[in-house]
## 1
Amino acid sequence: MINATLKALSQQLAAKAISSEELTGQYLDRIEALNPEFNAFITLDREKSLAEAKNADAARARGEAGLLTGVPLAHKDIFCQQGWKTSCGSRMLDNFISPYDAHVVEQCRLAGLVTLGRTNMDEFAMGSSTENSWYGPTKNPWDPAAIPGGSSGGSAAAVAARMAPAATATDTGGSIRQPASHCGVTGLKPSYGVVSRYGMVAFASSLDQGGVMAQTAEDCAMMLNVMAGFDRRDSTSIERAREDYTGQLASPLAGLKIGLPREYFADGLSADVARVIEAAVAELKKLGATVVDISLPNTELSIPAYYVIAPAEASSNLSRYDGVRYGHRAAEYHDLNDMYEKTRAEGFGTEVKRRIMVGTYVLSHGYYDAYYLKAQKVRRLIANDFVAAFKQCDVILGPVAPTAAFNIGEKCNDPVEMYLSDIYTLSVNLAGLPGMSVPAGFAANGRPIGLQIIGNYFAEAKMLNVAHQFQLATDWHSRAPAL
Amino acid sequence: MSLTHQDVARIAKLARIAVTDQEIEAVGLQLNTIFGLIEKMQAVDTTDVEPMAHPQDDALRLRPDVVTEPNRRDAFLAVAPKVENGLFLVPKVIE
């Protein structure tokens, strides 16, 4: 059961081969056994989880079960969930029990999914390794010396170790795709606006997007059906006709044009990753796809543009953490300003403070035009590159990260080195396009490597189709570490 | 461009984050490396390029000015550090 996909679990529950209570209990037992080592979960509550599972079984008995009723799910600790600690991996929210549900959590609850627990993450989603968590790092289930990636490292590790069949996650600069790649699971970030950000703790509002990790593209499609859709409470939520994201999975790939950006295959890409991506492309050609050489000339500029825009938006979003209405408040202070300054110095970790300061500077008087406005113009250039590229191809393929997962502690002292490894994922967020990572092989050291699939705006179904067909022809996605 | 001790102290003040002198030194060094990275943008010609604030260029959606949410004051006060009579308590601001 533990290795079952969402699809298989859904069928087992429908056939009454197992109850949600039993199934949830099995996952909770596995979490109890593995989480002390891997630290994928920040918060667990066996009673609450089993109560949800029993409700799901009761709903099924009443004939009211849906496709995913009773299926267990983990939530990244960034989605507000009523009655659960919602920490965002930060000391600032360590005492915060959310009084409401995020749209994503509400949608999952209405679909009958059962909460297994809340997963670890880089603090306020700022990081690519899950080393920036107040709750300690999460270890990669494939190799405990390795990072799981970040910021959704807990969600990726939970699925990789089969502590959960699926987990919600978020992606602002690669935080779904990169940990999915490093942990050998399938991850999906939809187009900006497809999944409501209501109740999703904000990092960079023009970049943040909720998504999912699971074993397969088909599972991700089933979850996207639950999570996607217009929500008037998110002013950037896109209003468009409802779509069944599983609808195009079975389409054959004959005639598909795959764009390979030459900038993604230059220096800096490790031999391991190049080998895996080349093999994956060859596999897709066997399935009938053709390759088109494309160029995304402004790729390198995505790093400075992102590291101006994201910190700028973060500095604004994180100004709400002032010790007044929720979260940490310093114990001693002599006036209001002192309370703000001490609360924020104590509540935020080093990387968060660093990014807030960068953001504050680039938005400050005298620097706004040179930095923030300039970055927004560069953003336009990057988005234009993709619009031009998609005139020549249907999907864009490439690596997710320059290397497989590095070791815990290897890069955490050099922020810039960490930032440089985001090169293949950032521009997708800047442009607002959908992106996926699918397991495609392993490095010589046994650490997983994912293939990135980038779709055109609102073409999640096509992207999922390519991923699904790849997964029918290969078995990388069904590998799991022996735990 | 290089940030001075003064610059870092000023930014910390604007961001309302307390920093010690040692922290200012350490943070200053790291911020300078980050700004070195950001400088690469300056080399690009962006004349006549429209800034892109976010992926949807449409104007923000408006809605009628009517109450749509229930009053959940007690639930929201329950998560606050210090409250009294339905109000959030903070150190005195007005002398």
## 2
Amino acid sequence: MTEDRFEELLGPYLLGELSVEEERELERHLEGCSGCRVELARARQSHDLLRGLAAGGPPAELKDRVLAQARGEIPARSRGGWRLWVPAAALLAIAILGAGLLWAITQGSSEGIPLTATVPASEGGGEVSGEVEGGNLQIELVVWGMPELRKDEYYELWYAKENGGRISCGTFRARPGGQTTVNLTAPVGATSYPEIEVTREPDDGNPGSSGEKVLVGDLRDL
Amino acid sequence: MFGQAVTGVEDEELIRRVAEGDDRALSLLYDRYSRPVYATGIRVLGDASLAEELVQDAFMNVWRAAGSFDPGRASFATWLYRITRNRAVDLDRRRQARPLSAGEEPLRSVTGGPEPEGGVDGWDVARALSRIPDEHREVLTLSYFEGLSQREISRRTGIPLGTIKSRTTVALKRLHRSLVNPAAEESQRD
């Protein structure tokens, strides 16, 4: 057997897949070949890590449950809405207010920002909390009692201004029963928009808001 | 399973497809990362059923929020780790709303993740696996995660047994390199 051939057998050796004769021959070679011993040590590290990872997996049927649930919901679409162009001067003008609101979201309230239902979702409610990571705000939205959506609808979270300006933070659907928790991302600048809205949106390709508010929150109430 | 073109795709491309509603892409990401998510659940929640709930919640968050993933900010593994960490905290909060059962412990600190301070955990291995070539990932996945013998892998893939054996060895070495020197593995892949 050649040097290269011995080296090729290291993987099957670790897996216990060599014949008795092959194994014996390889082990004799390893005693005298430091290069192959180094390669074996490297391969063994990968082997041990893979075995550890494989041993700790979730039950196989869980994957079916996750995929079945996913197929019953549309995913959030990649959208450009929250990347709306905002003039730099306007950003500067609202920076002080924004800093205060950002503090409110990330530090000022351990309970997060409460969202209250509008009439169409009288039993609904929610809460928004977030933390700054990198240049963005990582938002966690918890909702409950949300009205059931049609298949061609979804919910969308917005930061909004009184004059109608909005930044989308992402879309989602609620679970049967109307509750869910989702993680969304928004630019830190979004926190200068003092209102939070969850709207019901038709899946018609229009990135703008339908204006059909389901939940609303106001950072200025804190 | 690995015959479809999508299997060789990197995480960031898969998550883009998830955002378009491709559940096959979600399935592949699940195959790659459900184990470290589950292991995190076991480690920090100390309860198998809560760890399963964590896996389900985390991947449903991936499905729902795929459109907000920004590859310029973080890798998919890092993004998923944050989701996992946040969901684990939520699950623990919910558990704290009821009395602990005998032997049940409160949340352990969430450490590790795709960029750990030291050592190697399941997140690193999953991420390293995603970086090696598809043909190498295939033999390792079939061998370690599906428990197939080298001969069974040969039959399943139609590749000669001798090639499977040598490919397994090369794959283990590539995985090792991907773990210790991710940048080199990325550049070789490119």
